[in-house]
Hints:
This protein is of the alpha/beta class. The chain is built from 22 helices and twelve strands.
Amino acid sequence: xxRLMPYFKHYRFRSIMAPLFKCLEACFxxxxxxxxxxxxxxxxxxxxxxxxxxxxxxxxxLAVIGLVCSITAQYFAATAxxxxxxxxxxxxxxxxMGLGYKEIDDIGTAKLLTRISSDVTRVxxxxxxxxxxxxxxPFIVFGAVIMAFTVDPKSAMIFVALVIVLLxxxxxxxxxxxxxxxxxxxxxxxxxxxxRETLSGQRVIRAFNRQEKEKADFLxxxxxxxSFQLFAGKISALMNPLTMVVVNIGIICLLYxxxxxxxxxxxxxxxxxxxxNYMNQILVELVKLANLIILISRxxxxxxxxxxxxxxxxxxxAVTESFRAARAGSDGADEDASxxxxxxxxxxxxxxxxxxxxxxxxxxxxTVDRGDSIGIIGGTGSGKSTLINLIPRYYxxxxxxxxxxxxxxxxEDPKGLRARIGVVPQKAGLFAMSLRDNLRLGNPDAxxxxxxxxxxxxxxxxxxxxxxxxxxxxxxxxGRNLSGGQRQRVTIARALAKxxxxxxxxxxxSALDFATDARLRKSLRTYSGRMTVxxxxxxxxxxxxxxRIIVLANGHIEGIGTHKELLLGxxxxxxxxxxxxxxxxxxxxxxx
Length: 592
């Protein structure tokens, strides 16, 4: 609630006017039984049709005024709730975008999707109903009791006893159902995760004929969600019959005691009808209040889940501040011109800090000069992608340090650091926008000439020729209207258009044929000296012409050197070469 209340500040006027108009509507509603009682005792008893007509017009006027007040209140409540829901979504999305890879990995995509969609919607619905009913329902319940005392204090004691019993029922059911709403939302997370995995991996599922297994898994998890919902629903379903029984018993008692008082002249027939009407008003409002409390409890559960995400902090921020403080406390030097451009110094890394023995990288040390081309090769799971993900600070090292111009990159703001680096990830991520806008993601001010040059260097000119509209060609989500090779070439061009200091190609040419790959590597060599290039690949042909090649195996460096040096001195690299090259080619490269 502490985090939710500030959102009402921007909608203070609407948040105040909504319940006020609802209370105004309730006031007119409380006068209706008195007008009906007066109509019965005065007009009907005396057979005065004129009096009955005037009281009928008064009832109609009360209804119209109440309707106007209700519509006005609902307008203020709906607009305030929608605005608050939008603001919460904006803040939550901005917060998620500010989290690091580590935090997003720990939370999971499915949970984030549920929080920003269904949980925010539940909070918005709860706010809407809260503004409409949190004052109206208690106002009518206690107002009806007070009005009953003005009609007949003896009969009003039945109202007091009735309200106490109804409150016990309402809050008892509420306490019984609240824990299960948390379980329902957790189960929704798991169903969302299964759905997302199934939809994204449907080609693999069909290729291995696993449809029935996926259906069974989904039905099992969905059945668990159903069982939680049914249990909570069954308890909540007791609300209406129990309240109806209690209220009807109250009405019976009221009619019995009222009838006795009518016989002795202590109470009129109209007053008895008014008391019954007040009893029915209490019934209706308590049912509304019970549903409101259940809705609010679910909204609070969702807000708690949103707060769990909002309370997660980017661990890199604290690390950056500590390293900046340490640098300021020493000599405060910014950069060392004599130091290597980039240096890995005894770097070790683990995705889980608690499992120090399960490190993905161990004791990695090497230096890179500005403008060098560095190839990184190794088997699957050797740590190639993890290594290059440390350079733009997608993750921070577990131990050791990465230095750029003699300064630890952990003292750099991640945004500023990444502005100097162009990354082409393994999965070519494209967005539903024009080709031009996709290419300008890293450099919004890039000219069309630069974009065309980047596409040419990335061997993507034929894409512009074949696709209607050229740079204005509409790219579908994930680049579905492009082939795998075309997607990779567009992502390479996007990185080149950024004009970065460091270019990282993480297995970026895996979908290209050998001829296109060779032309791509030839064009990238034109950037030599002004751009430091890291090429991660399992192909020897992709890294053989690099200034230096780093060979990784099980998170350790097996060798660093040129293609020829590694052939002669690194068994792991030689083994990789022998699986991809003929014996004659290996022998020729050894003596070249």
